[in-house]
Structure formats: C-alpha cells, structure tokens
Design goal:
- With 454 residues, the protein is mainly beta.
- It contains 2 helices and 36 strands.
- The strands form 4 sheets. It has a 19-stranded parallel β-sheet that branches. Strands 4, 7, 8, 13, 16, 19, 22, 24, 26, 28, 30, 34 and 36 form a 13-stranded mixed β-sheet that branches. A two-stranded antiparallel sheet has the order 11-12.
C-alpha cells in the first residue's frame, strides 16, 4: 500500500470490548490508518497507538475505558508519574498521531478508583495505582481536536519529550475532588499550541514540567509553548510551570485565558536545576478562592517560588524575564513571589494588573505555601509512615503541622516579596476590604530578605 493512501476502518458500537479488534488493526502493518468509532457505546482496555494513525471518535460516540489497573498491564509506559506506569491510550517514538472528533472518553476515576473521602482535606481518597488517560512519549506531530474527556483517574493527558503538539477544542471535565487529575501535562516538549480548550479539574489545569525519568535521563526543556483562548477551573493551579523542573522552560506565552472558580491562578514553581526564562502571561481574567490545606496554595492570583528541593544535587533554577500584564479579577490570597536565596527571582514585570483582594471563609490564605520542599520529600518518609500524608500532597512535621505552610509576617499582604531582584510594576492596583479583616497585614506590600524559609 502506498504511504499516502489512508485506510479507513469504521467500528460500530458494540456491547463487547473492542480492545483486541482495534489493537489487531493497529498491529497489522505500519501503513496510514484512520479508525472511526461510530455513535454509541464502545468499551476498551489499554490501546497502544503507532505512527500514522488517526483515531476519530464521532459526535455521539462514547469510549469507556474498563475499570481496574490490571486492565492496562499491556500498555505500560516508560515514564512514571505519581507511581503510575500505565495508560489507557499510549504511544512511544511515533509520528503523525491524531485524536479527533466530537465524541467522549470516560475514565471512571471518581467511581472506580476511590476508597473513601478525606473530609478535612476536601479530597477523595484515591487508590494507590491509577492509569493516566493518554501518555505519548517521544512522539512528533500530534493533533488533539474536538474531544471531550471526563472523569480521569489520574493525569488526563501527558506528553513527554514530544515535538509539535497541536491541541484545539479539547474539553476536560474531571471530578473536582479527585487528586492528581491534571488536565494536560506538557513535559519536556517543544513547539506546542493549546487553543480554544476548556479544562475543569481538581489538580492543575495546564501544567508544564521538565522531569527526570526513572533511569535518570531527562525529558528535556519545555520551549516554544503557546496557550491561548482557554477556560480553566482548578482547585490547584490553573496554569503552572513546574514543580518538576530539571530542564529549562523558555519562550512560554499564555494569553486570553479565563480562570474560573480556581485556587491558584498562575504559578511558577522552580525546585530542580532548570532555569525559567522568557515567560509571558497576558490578558488573563481570574477568580481565585481559598482551599483546604491539602491543596497546594490558597487563593493566590500569582505565585512564583524558587526552593532547593535537592540541595545535594544543586540549586533550583532561577526564574527571570517574566512579564505579567493585563490581568484582572479577584483573589482571596495574595500575589506571592518567594525565593529561598537572594536573586532567585529577577527581572519580573507586573503591568496593568488590577485585583480585588477579598476575605475567604477558610482562613487558609493567611499562610504562604512553599510545597514541595527538601523537608517534605517523600523519599524521606518510610512507606506507611503516618507523617507522610498523601504522596504528592502533604507531609506532617513532629508537631503535626503540614510542612511548607508559613504564616505571612504580620498577616496577609496584597503583595509578598522575598528574594526578588528587579521587580517592575506599572499600573498595579490591589483593592482591599475596608476595614481590613484582622488576619490581613496593614501593609499592602511586604518585602523580606531570603533565607531561613523552611
């Protein structure tokens, strides 16, 4: 068959799982293949895609992935995240893959991968091992368009060391109390565009990472990423760079984004060796609310933190050349820029930023949040240690307090600065309650020296 001839196979809805049939079609040869799921219910376990494949889920079609971690033993992936080494849909070292259509993908996270509730922390208690929905590793030329993904058990979409990704018209709607259900994870990828998409989830909405694999190799830098015309709702951070930051982040642009009913709005968390530079957030509206202490942060419109998580390996990468402009909305927390060393954050510009700071009902915004730190690394806690809290969430100190939460000195200001050099502001306005609540600092701006944070 000529390479430019695409074979199309249409798959009718059926009560029986389609896993073996679809995988056989994928494995038959390496010629271009267009699989079409017709309207109706389709059930499947793990599927491994290859180069030159389009999977189209038509409007009215529902792809329900079968519950249970064991269903995905055949789709293990090389890059582990939150102890998960499996995916519902995966590909590695492949080119020209498209997931398109107006249909839906269901992960059954909140019904099949939970074991109770954590009322204090405001989350479900998830089972330990959960598959991600989509994992593409070292792939090139990826197109995701028009799909609706609901109720992911773990990270919804994870792209690692990939080049040229185009995401358009994607909708992710996850349970708002299900931990680790990030909307889309761009991990060491280059040439990425995410446009006209909606992400609603308990964990980070859109997150960029540069991780280290189990074998010690790096996924590489995140470079040339555009996020535009999106809507995000997150109980963690709507748009985040980090926490995993072993390689650099460069030339990242986020513009025309509406952040709704979220915890943190914009975040940069540098913890490892990669620098963060040439970042622009523009034309952002946001609505940031306090959350229980189990969620990192609490109501900050913007947070940038530089903390050495692995000082035995070297310092966390510096954050520099960040522009935040034309941002407006409401926050129950503060603007928080903290580096554990002097000049860890530099060349930071706030331009035409107007925020209303209001009092929350939980009181959790009175602390700034440096998680994760060296002190709460989970490799420091034996498996089963009650002080370990939840993996990827929190650890307790000897007094039973969550490590990394620190009282603002004198109460919560509008803007807190520590370890920052060359901060420029132009038309910055923070409107505060009158009279000020007792837990608010009377000073709008509080500046401190770096060191001794954790």
């Amino acid at each position: 068959m000529e390479r430019d001839v695409v074979r199309q196979v249409r798959i009718a809805a059926d009560d029986a799982p389609i896993t073996e049939r679809v995988q056989a079609l994928l494995d038959h040869d390496d010629a271009p293949l267009h699989l079409v799921l017709e309207p109706g219910l389709h059930r499947a376990a793990g599927l491994r895609l290859r180069s030159d494949v389009t999977l189209e889920i038509l409007a009215g079609a529902e792809l329900h992935f079968l519950p249970g971690y064991d269903q995905y033993a055949g789709t293990k992936v090389a890059i582990v995240a939150e102890e998960s080494d499996r995916a519902m849909l995966c590909a590695a070292d492949a080119r020209n893959i498209a997931l398109v259509g107006g249909g839906q993908i269901f992960g059954a996270g909140s019904t099949q991968y939970v074991q109770g509730e954590d009322v204090q922390m405001g989350t479900r208690r998830a089972v330990r091992y959960r598959p991600r929905v989509v994992v593409f590793d070292a792939c090139e030329n990826i197109r995701i368009e028009g799909l609706h993904i609901e109720d992911a058990p773990m990270w919804t979409m994870h792209f690692a060391a990939c080049t040229r990704i185009r995401v358009h018209g994607l909708s992710v709607d996850n349970d708002r109390r299900m931990p680790n259900t990030d909307g889309i994870v761009i991990d060491g990828c280059r040439d990425v565009e995410i446009t006209n998409s909606v992400f609603r989830t308990a964990d980070d909405g859109i997150v960029l990472k540069t991780t280290r694999r189990e074998d010690g190799t790096l996924t590489g830098p995140c470079e040339d990423v555009i996020i535009r015309d999106c809507v995000i709702e997150s109980r963690s951070c709507a748009i985040k760079l980090g926490t995993e930051s072993f390689s650099a982040f460069r030339r990242i642009t986020c513009e025309r984004v509406d952040i709704e009913k979220s915890n943190r709005g914009l975040g940069i968390l540098s913890r490892d060796g990669g620098v963060v530079e040439d970042i622009r957030f523009a034309q952002i509206t946001l609505d940031c609310h306090e959350t229980p202490e189990g969620f990192w942060g609490s109501g900050e419109a913007v947070t940038i933190t530089v903390i050495d998580r692995r000082p035995e390996e070297g310092p966390a990468g510096s954050v520099r050349g960040v522009v935040i402009e034309d941002v407006h909305g409401k926050m129950e927390g503060a603007l928080c820029f903290v580096s554990a060393r002097a000049d860890g954050i530099s060349d930071l510009t706030l331009r035409r930023v107007t925020l209303e700071q209001v009092r929350g009902v939980l009181g959790t915004a009175a602390k700034y949040d440096l998680r994760p730190t060296e002190a709460d690394r989970f490799d420091r806690f034996p498996l089963g240690d009650g002080n370990a809290g939840r993996v990827g969430g929190w650890c307790y100190d000897a007094q039973g307090r969550i490590i990394g939460l620190i009282d603002y000195p004198g109460g919560m200001p509008g803007l807190y600065i520590r370890g920052v050099r060359d901060l420029k502001t132009e038309a910055l306005s923070i409107i505060r309650p009158d009279p000020l609540p007792p837990e608010f600092n009377v000073q709008l701006v509080v500046t401190e020296e770096a060191d001794g944070l954790v």
